[in-house]
Write a structure and sequence with these properties.
Structural class: alpha/beta
Strand content: 5-15%
Helix content: 25-40%
Shape: globular
Distance between the termini: 49 Å
Number of helices: 17
Strand order of the largest sheet: 2-1-3-4-5-6
Amino acid sequence: MAVVDIGPLLDRVTRPARYMGAEWNARPLPTEEASLKILLVDPDVYEVGMSRSLFHSLYQLLNSLPSVTCHRAFLPWPDMAMAMRESATPLWSLEGRQPALEFDLLLVLAPSELCLPSIIELLSLSGLPPLRQDRSGGPVVAVCAPAFLNPAPFSPLADMVLLGDPEAILPTLVISLQDVGLDPSRLKGMSGVFDCSLQGTARAVWADPLPPIPTRPIVPFVETVQDALVVELARGDGETPYAGGNYYWGPYRERSPSEIMESVSEALANTGYREVVLKGTHYGKLQELAHALRQSVGREVAIRTLQIPAQASWVEAATLLWAVPPRGSLNLWVGASSQRLRDALGFPLSDEEILAAAQSAFLGGWTSIRLQLEVGVPGEKPADVDAFLELIGNVKRAGRAIRGPKAHVRIEAAIFVPRPFTPFQWAPLPSLDEVAHQVGILRHGCRRKGIDLAVERPERWLVATAVARGDEEVAEAALHAWRLGARWDMRRDAFVWSSWEEAFRRASLEASTILAGRERGALPWQGIDAGIDE
C-alpha cells in the first residue's frame, strides 16, 4: 500500500499529534499479512472519537480476527481539511498513513443524528463521491449505526448499514467478505446487515452477553474529551430510551461487577491511567460495584460516573467511587421537567427524590452538580417547566445551605427527539416556535434564579428529528447542507442553521412535514425487525 506524506501539512495545523498515530497499544496486523483491510472511521475530531468506548471495542475486536487488519481515521479539523484539499492529500490511516481508498472496507461510526454532513465530509476527503450511485469502485462503505434503527437517511451514502450491536455482526460479516468478495449484494439475508442498494428488510442483532471490555485500549498522546479509561457498564432499554445520550434500543444487558473489576484492573495495568469513567446511566449493581472497585483498585485511582439517576442511593455510590474529595461536577439525570411527565415516560422520579439526591451530593463533598433533562416532550406544558424551575430553586437553596457560596448548580437541557421503535415514532410534534417558546421560559427562569443553563437550539433539534424519522430525502438535504458549509453539526458551537434552512428548501422539505406524525404502515423503517412489538 502507498504511504501518504503528511509532513508538509503538519506545520500548517493546530495539534498535529492528532494525525500522527503510533500511540501505545496501537499495533494492528501488518497490511501485507491481511486478506481484509478495514479503516475504522469516526466522524468527529480525534479527541472526541478516541473517547468512545465503542470505538476501542471495535478496534480491539477487528484486530483480533484472523487475517484482518484494522486502522483508524478521524474527521480532520478545518485547518487540516483545507490543507488536504489545497495539496490534494487524501484521508489517511493513523496506522501506516495509508490512503483510505486502498482499504477494502470503510467502517464509519454514526454516533448521533447530526453526523450526516460529517460523514459526507469524510467520504469527500477520502476521494469517494458522497453518493453511492456515483461510485464505480473503491472500498465498501458500511455505516455502523448503534444509535439508529432507521437506515433510510444513510442509504444514499453507504453500501450497507449495520443495525444493532456491531460487535455481534462484524465477525460474521468479515468472514463473508473474505469468502465471497467485496460485493454487498452477495450478503443478502445476513442478520444485522441492511443492503442500501436493495432497500429490503433486515433484522437487528444484539450481543448477549455484551462484548468483552477492551483491556488494552489505545492511549492517546494528546488530551481527549474523556482523558481516562472509559468503561461501559450496560446497554439496552433498561437505561431508558429517554436517558440523554443513550441510543441503544436493544434488550437490557449489564456486565457483572466481577467482570468489570477484572477488566478495569487489567486495563489500568496496560495503560497507566489513573482515572476511570463508568458509562451506564441505570446500571443496577452500581452500589455493589462501588464497594468492590474501591477494594480492588488503589485509592490513587479516581473513579467517576458519567451520569446517574438523581436518587440518593446512586449519589452515595458515586461519592464512594471517588474515594478522594470529589471534584468536577456530578451529573444527575432527572428525565423530564415535571413529575407528571417523568411518570408518563416510565421514569418515575419525584421532585422530593431529586432534591434529596442533590442534598446528598452536597453533603458528600460535591460543590457542583448538573441536572440533565429533556424538554419539549409531547404533551409538555408551561406548567411543567414552571414546576422544574421551582425544583431547581430548591436545589440551589439546599446547596447554599450546605456548601455556602461554593455550591454551584447547572442545568443541561436537550430537546426530546422522537426516535423509531418508541411510542413517539407516530407522534406529531410541537412546532419550532412552540419549542422555542418552551426553551425561552426555561432560559428566562434560570436567568432569574441565577442558574447556568446549557440548552439545545430548537433548529438543531429539528435537524436531529428529520434524520431520526426521515427517509432518503434527508440525505439529499444533508448533501446540500454540506455543500453550503455544514461540517461539525454534532458540536453545538459549530452548528449553522442557515445552511440547513437553505438545504431543506432545496430538498423541498418543510418543517411542518418533518414534525408531522407518521401514519402506521408508512414508516421509512417499516422493513426493520428490531425485536420490539409494535
